[in-house]
Amino acid sequence: QVQLVESGGGLVQPGGSLRLACAASGRALRSTAMGWFRQAPGKEREFVAAISWSGAGTYYADSLKGRFIISRDNAKNTVYLQMNSLKAEDTAVYYCAARFSGSPERMSDYDYWGQGTQVTVSS
After folding, report:
1. Which residue(s) pair with 22 in the sheet?
2. Contact indicator for 14, 121 with CB cutoff of 8 Å
3. What's the rounded Cα separation, in Å, for the pair 85 and 87?
4. Which residues have C-beta within 8 Å of that of residue 79, sequence separation ≥ 6?
C-alpha cells in the first residue's frame, strides 16, 4: 500500500503563486508515476499534470501548460506542483495520485490517492 499526503494549499491573490507538495510513503516507488488532479466546486475532477517517477516525461492539461510545473525529488519521495499566475478559476481541491501503469491523464489508471489540499485564489 501507498499513502499520499498533500500540503501547501492556501489562499492566494490572483496572479500569485503556490507550490504544492505530495509526500509518498509505505513502499518503494521507483516505478511509480505521479499525477495531480483537481476538483472545483460543482465540477468534475480533472487532470492537471503528471510525471514519470524517473522524471523522463511530464504531461500537462493543455490549458495549464506554461503556468504549472510538475517536478519530483525521489530522495524525499515527494512530487511538487508549482502553480504560477494563478486565476480565480484555479480554485479547487488539488489531489495527488500514484500509478504503476496506464495513461498519465486517465483517473481510472491511478492506484492511490491523497485526501487533497484546498487552493483558493481570491482578492
Report:
1. 6, 79
2. yes
3. 7
4. 21, 22, 24, 34, 36, 51, 70, 71, 72, 73, 96
Q: How far apart are CA 68 and CA 36, in angstroms?
A: 11
Residue 112, helix vs strand vs coil? strand
Hey, how many other C-beta atoms are within 10 angstroms of the C-beta on 55? 12
Of 42, 46, 121, the closest CA to residue 88 belongs to: 121
DSSP assignment of 13-67: -TT--EEEEEEEESS--TT-EEEEEEE-TTS--EEEEEE-TTSS-EEE-TTTBTT
Q: Which residue has the cell 501503469?
A: 101
Tell me, what amino acid is at 94?
Answer: Y
Whether pLDDT at 28 is above 60? no
The answer to whether 82 and 69 are in contact (CB under 8 A) is: yes
How would residue 87 be classed by pLDDT, with cut points 50, 70 and 90? very high
Average pLDDT over residues 2-25: 95
Enter the C-alpha cell of residue 70: 510538475
